[in-house]
Design goal:
By secondary structure, the protein is mainly alpha-helical. The chain contains 7 helices and 2 strands. Strands 1-2 form a two-stranded antiparallel ribbon.
Length: about 130
């Protein structure tokens, strides 16, 4: 399967952007912060209207609940998806750092590649990090 075919099948599940928003929501939750449009916008470096639209779409798909002018929460499905993306992020960041990549570059690069690697590649990296 070529890269384009993979991305098309992958995007049917969750887009890269949607994964980023879910991961940001999880990271805020893990820091003990409430999920707020402003906080997500700051974390991702995007506009508040973009966050509002994205969170609305994620709510419509059942990944989070969003009260009008109120609190935002990850649903069980949303949290599972966010945890999966965040696990890949941490794994890839640690892997790149182990290779000698600086923490800042590793953090930037893993944000780009966490969305496109196959489950097989992630599994192999996970095994390597455990045993290597």
């Amino acid at each position: 399967m070529c890269y384009t075919e993979y991305m098309e099948s992958h995007e049917q599940k969750l887009t890269v952007s949607a994964e980023d928003y879910l991961e940001a929501a999880l990271r805020l939750t893990l820091r003990g912060e409430r999920i707020k449009v402003t906080s997500v916008a700051e974390l991702l470096g995007v506009s508040k209207p973009a966050v509002t639209n994205a969170l609305g779409e994620l709510a419509a798909k059942g990944y989070l609940t969003k009260e009008p002018y109120g609190d935002i929460y990850l649903t069980q499905t949303g949290r599972a998806a966010a945890e999966s993306v965040y696990e890949k992020h941490r794994l890839l960041r640690d892997f790149l750092c182990k290779l000698g990549v600086s923490e800042q570059v590793a953090d930037t690069d893993c944000c780009k590649i966490e969305h496109i690697l196959s489950d097989e590649t992630i599994s192999c990296i996970k095994n390597y990090m455990k045993n290597g």
